[in-house]
């Protein structure tokens, strides 16, 4: 057999790339195995020396083989066709792409339980992690799929892996998947009380525990499940906010009910934010009558004008607290508006200072003065677009100071 020339090798490689591109389209879009097969059969018929298995396992894009790509596409017939072309699929199923994703992780991301099951039966390692430290179970948790999580757990998936974004519990909490949280807590409890409690309270890289992430995501039942499982609710974040403050403000009734049944939760009722608001104040500002009632027995009532500190829940007391909430909200809105306007004014003043500094330092010759004037004109145009009209006029004035014969500057300043 004659040796192929470089030109022939190049032609085959180029055609293989084109076919690879078409097969990717089938994987991600059409899912028609007859089309996929035709592309491959035509190519192999034309190039009988080419190894078909190498095409499916050796051809890569960012480390992804067609096995990775078909798993990402989530179409089982396409995946089945491709895996069927591998003589020994077990040697490929745990291969990682450039970002550390395995075909199993890809199948989990694409929410294809059927492909996941097929890979697991072939011996896929459920605990392999990508470069961020996330395994397949993290992605199943983020999707809130109890079915896919259970498939992975039954195959030996570990629930104590903490990726850059946290454990599977964090991933479920951050996406407000209460049923996924409940499932994970049940499985974690089988690891023993001490380890289970540690996993419930472990923090991700940004320092947030799962219960706080669930609260921010407004996952009412999820927070409740985590609190009942022993989550630490005494964590205080920026603004002197506790988990209870966040839940009270967002109307998470089940969460608030679980929190106030714990001593640390009752203590949180008296914690004030940097703006001087207790959880009951935030609930009142949100006009949430039910949560106000839950918080009254554990809150300091001396803020009311009636100066009562009664913990008896009456409709009159609730009305008084809600009325106070209306006043607090109006005050907060006024302060927020003032801060916004002050920040805008400060930004405008800074622009003016830059203009004044540029003028003071200007010792340019006439030709340079024209260039400097153009810069002031451009600054004026930018300020005008931002609605900072006085600052824009000042910039145009500086342009005129440097070049008073330019009609455009006069026109801009007069606009």
TrEMBL record:
The record's annotation in SMART domains points to: ANK (SM00248), TPR (SM00028)
Gene3D superfamilies named in the record? Ankyrin repeat-containing domain (1.25.40.20), Tetratricopeptide repeat domain (1.25.40.10)
Domain of life, per lineage: Eukaryota
Outline the ANK repeats, range by range. Answer: 99-131, 132-164, 275-296
List keywords of the entry alphabetically: ANK repeat, TPR repeat
Species in which this protein is naturally found: Spumella elongata
Chain coiled-coil ranges:
none
Identification of the protein by name? Ankyrin repeat protein
Each TPR repeat, start to end: 373-406
């Amino acid at each position: 057999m004659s040796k192929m020339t470089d030109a022939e090798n190049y032609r085959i490689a180029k055609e293989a790339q084109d076919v690879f591109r078409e097969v990717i389209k089938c994987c991600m879009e059409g899912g028609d195995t007859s089309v996929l097969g035709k592309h491959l059969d035509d190519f192999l018929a034309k190039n009988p020396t080419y190894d078909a298995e190498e095409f499916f396992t050796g051809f890569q894009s960012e480390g992804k083989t067609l096995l990775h790509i078909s798993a990402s596409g989530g179409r089982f017939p396409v995946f089945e066709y491709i895996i069927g072309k591998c003589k020994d699929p077990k040697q490929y199923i745990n291969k990682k792409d450039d970002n550390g994703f395995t075909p199993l992780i890809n199948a989990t991301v694409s929410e294809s339980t059927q492909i996941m099951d097929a890979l697991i039966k072939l011996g896929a390692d459920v605990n392999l992690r990508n470069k961020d430290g996330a395994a397949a179970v993290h992605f199943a948790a983020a999707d809130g799929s109890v079915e896919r999580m259970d498939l992975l757990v039954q195959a030996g998936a570990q629930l104590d892996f903490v990726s850059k974004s946290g454990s599977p519990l964090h991933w479920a909490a951050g996406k407000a998947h209460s049923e996924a949280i409940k499932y994970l807590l049940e499985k974690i409890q089988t690891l023993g009380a001490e380890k289970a409690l540690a996993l419930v309270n472990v923090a991700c890289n940004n320092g947030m525990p799962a219960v706080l992430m669930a609260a921010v995501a407004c996952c009412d039942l999820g927070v409740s499940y985590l609190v009942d499982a022993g989550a630490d609710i005494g964590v205080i974040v920026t603004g002197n906010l506790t988990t209870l403050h966040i839940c009270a403000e967002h109307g998470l009734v089940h969460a608030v009910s679980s929190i106030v049944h714990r001593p640390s939760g009752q203590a949180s009722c008296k914690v004030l934010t940097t703006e001087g608001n207790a959880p009951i104040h935030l609930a009142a500002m949100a006009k949430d009558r039910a949560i106000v009632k839950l918080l009254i027995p554990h809150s300091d009532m001396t803020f009311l004008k009636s100066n009562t500190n009664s913990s008896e829940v009456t409709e009159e007391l609730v009305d008084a607290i809600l009325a106070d909430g209306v006043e607090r909200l109006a005050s907060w809105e006024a302060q927020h508006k003032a801060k916004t306007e002050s920040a805008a004014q400060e930004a405008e003043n800074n622009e003016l200072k830059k203009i004044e500094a540029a003028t003071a330092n200007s010792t340019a010759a006439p030709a340079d003065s024209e260039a400097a004037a153009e810069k002031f004109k451009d600054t004026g145009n930018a300020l005008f677009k931002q609605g900072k009209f006085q600052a824009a006029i000042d910039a145009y004035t500086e342009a005129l100071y440097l070049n008073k014969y330019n009609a455009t500057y006069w026109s801009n300043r007069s606009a």
